[in-house]
Write a structure and sequence with these properties.
Largest sheet: 7 strands, mixed
Helix content: 25-40%
Number of strands: 30
Shape: elongated
Length: about 700
């Protein structure tokens, strides 16, 4: 091709792949004529500068004449290259043959664009036939209703089936031409289904069940034609499938190969449909669809879907997208989504649909990072979050709600409900709500009220309210939401040092309130800390740490069985479900626990060095606080902090006297002096 010459294209676009290619060529500045057979096909072609539509069926001779005219328009006898692309339906064999004949007659190059097959989706349960006539012959010897998804053109052959007007339910396009041809053959009323596809698995399943189908007849229409969704729906509905195979084994190229050929042959850079934001790179939109129902989607998200070249997401997410006639791919894992986008550069605008609001416990954060690493431009569109929708349904505000997610992660919801009047949580797992109810009852929170929301926004939406003991034992969806209301929620203390008399003690030693307060100040906990309490005793320090690190976890390590039982009791008194009691002797009992960020050592049973070595091996930056009374123990501790890789060593001797009432007088009674040693993993210069 000479420099400066712009090629002209004639595309017979009976498929979405053909229409997409036409849009990309027009966007690249090439004059494109799209040939379609029907008015319906014309409506599917989006208006675009440089793109014209020819409507009407043509014979091979008429096609040749039309191509000859196109050559003359291209430059007085064909000075400018002209290219034909056959992107007709896989079953339009006669049309493809006419296109080939016409191109040979006028000496124009022709490329066949093949739709991706899904032959691998056909299972041994399917009946495979070569033609519609063969399918009709097979059905003559069967019983039961039949859903025909083969269109209206070949419907006449099925009228040879006995009692066909009662047994057969054709699904055809909702055009006057289709309806008229069907009624002439005797298909009408409830037996005639007029709808525009593609159809989701859920809609196919519902339709098969509605007509009490025993059979479904379909063509192998490929991924874009919803073939996989038909087969999976049939399996769910218990329906047998008759598959009409593609009429001939065609030679041609897939969408990606066609683009590469055209780019190389005509020195083009196909940058996608008109309106692409960034030429040469697929633009990706991460869109939150809200609860899932169309009426809850934002206008901005709907518009993004209408403008998209392809729409991706989990099967439930893309149900609405199928009605738009766009290429749809079901996937939800980051790697799967990226792999599909990488493999389909022809889609320049891709929308990935995600549930709820992409900023509320969504996978959008990691997905965006994954795509950004591959240099894909990404924009984010928020949806309506489940907490906003659910609180609206309950008629309550949500600005004072504590937000949690128990879907695939652990959270201290007991502590959250104990300290907040309203807590919202995403729940995962079939027994999720029941486990929650049992946990609330175990920690004496049976007086709270729970609201459980299932299948929000859908017709089968259900909201159930009640006390934990009322809801425990009921069956709920594996994925739902819960709002817990606790009118008696108590404010958690902002400082440590709970009164000693609040703890159950028996005869087990306990770190006193003032010493706990100083020790925990030295420990410098964070809300999400993972803490070991070595030699936990009654659990008073564990309780205080669990209240301070409400989003973290405390591992109470204790060898004395009586003390272990006391810790479990105190856990329930203070509603600190984020304490895990480990019975055993440290450091052996610590080996299989998660990596600590902090550790408190109240008792070491002579194993202090081994305990500290274990902590520093698990986390070289672990912060440690040690309490000791005996002089021998303080000597052992000093030896450890001098020889082990720790820094920021801080030693305090604490003497506490508490008043005791004797008649009209208050006498101060001294307690044993305690040494509090704090340090942090790491090597300081003086210990190097």
């Amino acid at each position: 091709m000479n420099k400066g010459e712009t090629p002209r294209f004639l595309i017979f676009a009976g498929t979405v792949e053909g229409r997409t290619l036409a849009g990309e060529l027009a966007a690249a500045g090439c004059p494109v004529t799209v040939s379609v057979a029907t008015e319906y096909g014309e409506k599917l072609v989006e208006e675009q500068p440089g793109l014209t539509v020819h409507r009407g069926r043509m014979t091979a001779e008429e096609m040749a004449s039309f191509m000859e005219e196109m050559k003359q328009k291209a430059g007085d006898g064909g000075g400018v290259p002209c290219q034909v692309v056959d992107a007709t339906h896989p079953y339009a064999a006669a049309v493809s043959e006419n296109i080939r004949t016409a191109c040979e007659a006028v000496h124009l190059p022709c490329l066949r664009l093949l739709r991706e097959s899904e032959q691998e989706a056909v299972t041994e349960d399917c009946v495979f036939v070569a033609s519609a006539a063969e399918a009709a012959d097979y059905l003559k010897n069967t019983e039961g209703n039949v859903l025909l998804t083969t269109g209206s053109k070949e419907l006449a052959v099925f009228t040879e089936i006995p009692d066909y007007q009662a047994r057969l339910f054709p699904r055809v396009l909702s055009t006057a031409e289709s309806v008229l041809s069907c009624t002439k053959l005797g298909f009408e009323g409830k037996n005639l289904i007029c709808m525009q596809g593609p159809f989701s698995e859920e809609l196919n399943t519902a339709m098969l069940k509605q007509i009490h189908a025993s059979w479904m007849v379909t063509k192998e229409t490929g991924k874009s034609g919803g073939f996989g969704e038909k087969l999976s729906a049939a399996r769910k509905a218990g329906v047998k499938v008759i598959v009409i195979g593609r009429p001939v084994k065609e030679e041609g190229y897939g969408p990606r190969e066609i683009r590469e050929i055209l780019e190389e042959r005509y020195s083009l850079k196909l940058g996608g449909q008109a309106g692409s934001v960034r030429a040469g790179k697929t633009q990706i939109t991460l869109a939150g669809i809200g609860m899932g129902a169309y009426r809850n989607m934002t206008v901005e998200v709907v518009e993004a879907c209408r403008e998209a070249d392809a729409i991706l997401g989990a099967s439930r997410m893309v149900e609405f997208a199928r009605t738009l006639g766009k290429p749809v791919h079901c996937a939800y894992k980051d790697d799967e989504l990226k792999a599909y986008i990488d493999a389909h550069p022809e889609y320049r605008k891709v929308v990935i649909l995600l549930s709820g609001d992409i900023g509320f416990y969504s996978g959008a954060k990691k997905l965006r990072q994954r795509l950004a690493e591959a240099d894909y431009p990404v924009r984010m569109l928020s949806g309506i979050s489940s907490v906003v929708y659910f609180c609206g349904k309950l008629g309550t505000s949500w600005e004072d709600v504590k937000l949690l997610s128990l879907h695939g992660k652990e959270e201290n919801i007991v502590g959250a409900v104990a300290g907040n009047h309203k807590v919202f949580a995403l729940i995962g797992g079939k027994d999720g709500v029941n486990r929650l109810c049992r946990q609330f009852m175990e920690y004496n929170l049976s007086g709270i009220k729970l609201h459980v929301g299932e299948r929000l926004s859908y017709p089968e939406e259900r909201i159930t309210s009640g006390m934990p003991e009322q809801l425990e034992g009921m069956i709920f969806d594996g994925l739902c939401v819960v709002l817990a209301e606790n009118p008696d929620a108590g404010e958690l203390p902002v400082t440590h040092g709970l009164p000693d008399e609040l703890f159950l003690r028996d005869k087990v030693p306990m770190t006193k309130s003032e010493v706990r307060s100083i020790s925990l100040s030295k420990l410098q906990l964070r809300p999400d800390s993972v803490v070991y309490d070595v030699g936990a005793g009654t659990g008073s320090v564990s309780i205080e740490m669990a209240l301070q690190a409400a989003e973290g976890m405390v591992y109470a390590i204790e060898k004395n069985q009586t003390a272990v039982e006391l810790i479990e009791k105190n856990k329930r008194v203070f509603r600190t479900a984020n304490i895990q009691v480990t019975e055993g002797l440290a450091p052996e009992a610590m080996e299989d626990l998660p990596v600590p960020t902090h550790a408190f050592i109240g008792g070491s049973s002579g194993n202090l060095r081994e305990i500290m070595e274990c902590l520093l091996r698990k986390n070289p930056e672990c912060r440690i606080v040690i309490n000791t009374i005996a002089l021998e123990s303080i000597a052992e501790t000093l030896d450890c902090v001098k020889s082990l890789p720790v820094t920021d060593v801080d030693i305090a001797g604490v003497s506490v006297a508490k008043s005791k009432t004797l008649g009209r007088y208050h006498m101060m009674m001294g307690q044993n002096p305690v040494y509090i040693i704090a340090c942090k993993g790491g090597t300081a210069d003086e210990y190097a």
